[in-house]
């Protein structure tokens, strides 16, 4: 009921906390019947309450064609009250805003909304996007269009890549699936800050894959040497900025303090997993073939040994037969 009251209040006043970004909300979210809208409101109340404690939540409400799937996320450094407030305002904007800045999916029963300087996002749909863990629709924001000089671009890109890889390692090893980091870029005398987060309900391996996909696509989405960008998705987000600490956390992972040998120790990289799996499979097959060969050789040697014993027995019998014919003191008897 609290959320319904907030929505009524927001309908009569303009949003003052921030502006919606990355949405193609053309005239508001259209919900053709009261049952679906009621399910959506009920689900949002549950998810907002959960996100107040854990910064993110996902779930469903209703049945049949009126079933609603939803996922919400507040940035990991936000407190409970501001998280709930921003989520409620984001839902109000999604349903009622006339904003036409387009990027994210928006249709009769679907909305994905990235809100208020990337601190809040909501996603609701009548289609099941929860079981697939698809990060679409994604949004890339050029938060800082300045670039480092061409002479240090390669070094800068390499450093940012290492920074966000180390950040991903930290995220997938934490229960809240949120981490921030920094690194000193000596060539320009600047600090690069980064933040990564997954929805807490997400399995660790899914979170790793989600962030890895953002990292893989990063350089194709922005200019080389660009000093800042945000990569937003339904399930996971990543942002980095040069000389701007855009989060409030002070407990940061410092790349300059990480031992190089351990920097990628906890990478959940698909290629590595496939490589290790392939190696173990080849090793298992090799051991199996060797075991079969050893057993075959052993049986072959045993057969040869038995044949040799039989051959020797026959030779002895033949020799004895010959001796019996030449030696009168030696007799052979036909027992039959």
From TrEMBL:
Superkingdom of origin organism: Eukaryota
The organism of origin for this protein: Avena sativa (Oat)
Lineage: Eukaryota, Viridiplantae, Streptophyta, Embryophyta, Tracheophyta
Name listed for the protein in its UniProt record: Uncharacterized protein
């Amino acid at each position: 009921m609290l959320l319904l009251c907030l929505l009524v209040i927001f309908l009569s006043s303009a949003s003052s906390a921030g502006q919606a970004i990355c949405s193609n909300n053309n005239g508001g979210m259209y919900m053709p019947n009261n049952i679906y809208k009621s399910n959506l409101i009920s689900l949002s109340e549950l998810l907002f309450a959960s996100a107040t404690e854990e910064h993110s939540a996902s779930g469903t409400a209703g049945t049949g064609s009126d079933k609603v799937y939803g996922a919400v996320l507040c940035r990991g450094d936000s407190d409970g009250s501001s998280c709930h407030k921003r989520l409620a305002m984001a839902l109000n904007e999604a349903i009622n805003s006339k904003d036409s800045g387009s990027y994210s999916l928006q249709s009769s029963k679907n909305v994905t909304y990235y809100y208020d300087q990337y601190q809040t996002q909501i996603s609701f749909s009548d289609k099941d996007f929860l079981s697939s863990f698809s990060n679409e629709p994604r949004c890339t924001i050029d938060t800082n269009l300045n670039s480092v000089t061409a002479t240090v671009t390669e070094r800068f890109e390499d450093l940012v890549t290492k920074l966000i890889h180390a950040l991903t390692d930290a995220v997938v090893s934490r229960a809240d699936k949120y981490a921030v980091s920094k690194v000193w870029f000596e060539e320009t005398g600047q600090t690069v800050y980064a933040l990564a987060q997954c929805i807490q309900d997400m399995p660790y391996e899914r979170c790793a894959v989600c962030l890895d996909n953002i990292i893989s696509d990063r350089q194709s989405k922005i200019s080389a040497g660009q000093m800042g960008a945000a990569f937003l998705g339904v399930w996971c987000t990543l942002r980095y900025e040069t000389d701007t600490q855009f989060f409030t956390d002070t407990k940061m992972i410092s790349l300059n303090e990480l031992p190089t040998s351990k920097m990628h120790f906890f990478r959940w990289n698909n290629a590595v997993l496939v490589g290790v799996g392939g190696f173990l499979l080849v090793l298992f097959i090799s051991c199996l073939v060797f075991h079969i060969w050893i057993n075959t050789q052993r049986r072959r040697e045993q057969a040869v040994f038995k044949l040799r014993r039989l051959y020797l027995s026959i030779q002895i019998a033949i020799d004895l037969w010959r001796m019996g014919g030449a030696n009168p003191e030696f007799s052979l008897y036909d027992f039959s």
